[in-house]
């Protein structure tokens, strides 16, 4: 359970599924970024063998969607979809909802 500093532009990949993300916005500090119950690694890190997807965290990440935490201080863009659920410090991330535009009469 490695904590890492997240910064905008950083890319990470899952060690248990095909999911890849890019950090769009990140809070200061070090955090535990996981997918499918396993730590995510830098996009250029060698592939780790033997990881298994946690069935309780086997939601789906969708390409092109943005994932945020509760206060939206972290925003990730999914660049490759997969079968794992994204989480930050043990709390699942949710798909960012589109902002409602004001109606023009």
Structure commentary:
There is one protein chain. The chain has no helices and twelve strands. The chain is an all-beta fold. It has one domain (4-95). A six-stranded antiparallel β-sheet has the order 7-2-3-9-8-12, with no helix packed on it. A four-stranded antiparallel β-sheet has the order 6-5-10-11, with no helix packed on it. It has a two-stranded antiparallel sheet with strand order 1-4. It is globular and about 55 Å long. The mean pLDDT is 88.
For this entry, give a set of tags.
4-stranded antiparallel beta sheet; mainly beta; 6-stranded antiparallel beta sheet; 34% strand
Q: From the helix content, strand content and strand pairing, which structural class follows?
A: mainly beta
- Sketch the major β-sheet: 6 strands, antiparallel
Order of helices and strands: EEEEEEEEEEEE
Shape: globular
Helix content: under 10%
Counting DSSP H or I runs of 4 or more residues, the number of helices is 0
First-residue to last-residue Cα separation: 53 Å
* Radius of gyration over all CA atoms, rounded: 14 Å
Unreliable sequence segments: none
| Number of spatially distinct domains | 1
């Amino acid at each position: 359970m490695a904590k890492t500093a997240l910064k905008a532009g950083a890319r990470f990949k899952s060690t248990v599924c095909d999911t890849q993300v890019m950090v769009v916005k990140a809070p200061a500090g070090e955090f535990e970024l996981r997918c499918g119950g396993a730590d995510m690694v830098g996009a250029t890190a060698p592939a780790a063998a033997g990881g298994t997807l946690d069935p309780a965290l086997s939601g789906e990440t969708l390409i092109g969607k943005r994932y945020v935490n509760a206060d939206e201080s972290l925003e990730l863009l999914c660049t490759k979809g997969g079968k794992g659920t994204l989480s930050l410090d043990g709390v699942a991330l949710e798909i960012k909802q589109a902002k409602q535009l004001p109606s023009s009469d």
